[in-house]
């Protein structure tokens, strides 16, 4: 029987530089990127609102004010234009193929505060097993309500969902169900790996670290802040590995993952 591993990824700063909304969507709202995020922070503080919910609300309002279409299709089109780190577009298919050669089933999951429908526009979307990210319910040309909001602390629930196979976010019983020895587990924690890029990923790193999983910090070696954060996470024992943001074949991250898969196939 094939062994199974789950590779779980943050998106912003891990698969692309900065926030995905900053590349084209926010500029198209005719607002300065810095001003947009300042408004989000101010609104959160003033109203004691979760910052992720604040950004979803303000983004929807800015799109409406700028006469931008607010729809799944519009977000998908923005996703198609995203500039990703080198090698990301073919990474998911390539690693799955390598796993198959080693009799290891590789599953890919994205857990992100970005937008599901933008990720849906990426060329690799069909290689993903699940995306847990922010999403709207659309009605009458507006983003009526958050279908899902993913912030840095609630990301951990999705690790448990993947672990237990309780994939649907409306399944509260399944994700909270206590599993005993011999009960079906979709993926053991020790076969889960999380890729993140910073302090907001620490709660997720911690869950895997405590349960014998692996944590990997992706950093931009041309960005001093990114490099410093990565080094601190490693020295603090938050992550097991530091890798440059290059997903191409024979890159550091490629070699590392293939070694992990080979080890899993032999054990």
How would you describe this protein?
- The protein has twelve helices and seven strands.
- By secondary structure, the protein is α/β, with parallel strands linked by helices.
- The protein has a domain at 3-15 and 87-139 and 148-266: 3-Layer(aba) Sandwich (Rossmann fold).
Major beta sheet summary? 7 strands, mixed
At CATH level 3, the topology of the domain at 3-15 and 87-139 and 148-266 is Rossmann fold
Average pLDDT over all residues = 94
CATH architecture of the domain at 3-15 and 87-139 and 148-266: 3-Layer(aba) Sandwich
Q: What is the subunit arrangement here? A: single chain
- Give unreliable regions as ranges: none
Q: In percent, how much strand structure appears in the residues?
A: 15-25%
Q: Could you tell me the number of beta strands?
A: 7
- The shape is globular
Number of helices: 12
Classified in CATH, the superfamily of the domain at 3-15 and 87-139 and 148-266 is HAD superfamily/HAD-like
């Amino acid at each position: 029987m094939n062994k199974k591993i789950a590779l779980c990824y943050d998106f912003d700063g891990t698969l692309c530089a900065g926030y995905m909304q900053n590349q084209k969507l926010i500029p198209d709202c005719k607002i300065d990127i810095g001003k947009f995020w300042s408004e989000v922070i101010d609104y959160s503080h003033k109203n004691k609102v979760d910052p992720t919910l604040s950004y979803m609300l303000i983004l929807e309002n800015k799109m409406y004010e700028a006469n931008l279409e607010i729809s799944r299709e519009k977000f998908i089109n923005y996703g198609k234009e995203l500039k990703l780190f080198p090698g990301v577009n073919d990474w998911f298919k390539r690693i799955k193929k390598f796993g198959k050669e080693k009799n290891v089933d590789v599953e890919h999951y994205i857990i992100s505060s970005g937008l599901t429908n933008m990720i849906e526009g990426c060329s690799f979307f069909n290689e993903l097993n699940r995306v847990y990210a922010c999403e709207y319910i659309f009605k009458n040309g507006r983003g009526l309500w958050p279908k899902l909001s993913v912030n840095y602390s609630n990301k951990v629930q999705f690790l448990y969902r993947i672990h237990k196979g309780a994939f649907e976010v409306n399944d509260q019983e399944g994700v909270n169900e206590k599993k005993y020895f011999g009960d079906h587990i979709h993926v053991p924690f020790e076969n889960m790996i999380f890729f993140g890029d910073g302090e907001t990923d620490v709660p997720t790193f911690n869950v895997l670290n405590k349960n014998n999983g692996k944590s990997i910090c992706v950093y931009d070696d041309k960005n001093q802040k990114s490099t410093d954060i990565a080094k601190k996470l490693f020295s603090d024992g938050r992550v097991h590995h530091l890798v440059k943001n290059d997903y191409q074949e024979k890159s550091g991250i490629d070699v590392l993952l293939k070694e992990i898969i080979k080890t899993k196939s032999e054990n």
